[in-house]
Amino acid sequence: MDCxxxxxxxxxxxxxxxxxxxxxxxxxxxxxxxxAPSGLNNQPWRFIIVEREDLKxxxxxxxxxxxxxKEASNLIVVFLDNNSSYHREKDIQAIGACIQNxxxxxxxxxxxxxxxxxxLKNREAVESLLKAKEGWELMAVIALGYPKKEGKSTRxxxxxxxGGWYK
Length: 167
Ligand SMILES: Cc1cc2nc3c(=O)[nH]c(=O)nc-3n(C[C@H](O)[C@H](O)[C@H](O)COP(=O)(O)O)c2cc1C
What we know:
Elements: H1 3-9, H2 23-34, E1 45-50, H3 53-60, H4 66-71, E2 74-81, H5 88-108, E3 112-116, H6 123-129, E4 136-145, H7 158-161
Antiparallel strand pairs: 1-2, 2-4, 3-4
The structure holds flavin mononucleotide.
Flavin mononucleotide (FMN) binds at residues 11-12, 14, 65, 114-118, 151, 153.
């Protein structure tokens, strides 16, 4: 799958088959995330991978999207390492780029995923449950697995989002 095809065909997947995702595919996706750009190349992202059922169960209680968390084969929990941060706004933008790389890399390998941000309301509980290191701040949980149901989302017309073109 080429890059543009991956971008245009990726959709959030919220229903997963009961089929474990291979470790090398998860690691490949994290490596793709790690190759995202960051300000001063400070690489402020950190990850914890969860596949233990008891931890998924506990995490599922911390979000409205608990069903997705429980159904997922793996969770990639993404943190901002405040010890490596140099400019909060830019670091958070870099984390967004990292997460998008992960989603695309999963999709290119036939794996579905969804970015779960709603769980941030329980940031501290997630950090303590997963024994995140000092300074690691929860940014998102990526739930992933083999897709059971396709996602379908659309986009506004391009004309609505381009505010000008000075030629
Ligand atoms: C910052 C952010 C937070 C999100 N949080 C959630 C979430 O908590 N639960 C969820 O089901 N989807 C979540 N999503 C996925 C969006 O709903 C989804 O990307 C959007 O509806 C467009 O659909 P698509 O990804 O299929 O193109 C989030 C996406 C982003 C970028």
